[in-house]
Amino acid sequence: MRELKMLLGGIMLASIAGCTGAQMVSSPDSGAAYAPVNEGARLGVIKYLNDGADVVRKMRREDAYKQMHAACKGRYRIEGEGSNPEGGSAFTSGNGTYWAQSNYWYIQFSCI
């Protein structure tokens, strides 16, 4: 029973640690001095951890919306989205080691 509590505590800690929000993978406009003229036409990509409590996942998605809006300096359109398993955490207990897969949600977007 103690080991189960430790395992659940570790999972909760990992969930809280993942509350940092969304991460821009590729911005549609880098603002680089030597960027190509059509850089603004390419899709941007943002991701966020899609594990944990529903309210936390909603907060991460809202953060993604804010970052996409900022990257586009206003309006944007979601072109596609989906889940991708990526990384995870190992938890050791008296009976062995357990692996908790992390699942990220990716959003492709374009500026309007």
UniProtKB/TrEMBL annotation:
Residues 1-22 form the signal peptide. Keywords: Signal. This is Lipoprotein. It comes from Pseudomonas kielensis.
